[in-house]
Amino acid sequence: MDLSAFFKMSYGLYVVSAEAEGKRAGCVVNTAVQVTAAPPAVSVAVNKDNVTAGVIADAGAFTITVIDKTADMPYIGNFGFRSSDTYDKFEKYGCETSAVGSPYSPEHVCALLACRLIDTVDVGTHLLFIGEVEDARVLSDEEPLTYSYYHAVLKGKTPPKASSYQAS
Q1: Which end of the chain has fewer CB atoms surrounding its CB within 10 Å, N or C?
Q2: 147 vs 65, residue with greater confidence
Q3: Domain count of the chain?
C-alpha cells in the first residue's frame, strides 16, 4: 500500500483550542472538516496524547482558526511543536476569547469557527471531536495555508502526533 496517496488529499492547517478549569490549550491540526451545513457542524482530529484533547473534552467546546499564508514557521512551531502543559502558546501572539469561551490567537488566521462539542469518536491514536458551530467569522482576506504549501514552500515537517504522520 502506498500511504503517500494521502498526501494528494487537500488539507489546510488549523489551530484548535479550548479552555477548561483555568487551563488553556491549543495545537496545530490538519484534519478539520465541515460535516454538515444545517445545522453547521465540523469535526477535528486531535491526538489523544495532546493536552488539547483533554482540555476539549473537559470544556465541552472548542474553537478552530484557519491559519493563513502570512504565518511563518515560528508561528506554526509555537502552536504545533510545543506542549500546552508547559508553555503558554497564546502569550506571544495575543489571545482573544471565542463565543464558546475558547482562547484563540487573532494573528495569522483568516477565519474562526467556535463550536459546542456534540460527540467524540475514538479513532485509535486520535479523538475525533464533532462540534456544532455556534459562531463563524471571516477574520481576514488572506488565503488559507494549505498543508501542501506548508511542506513545499515553508519546508515544514509532520510531527509524530499528527494524524498524517508516517514513520520513515
Answers
A1: C
A2: 65
A3: 1
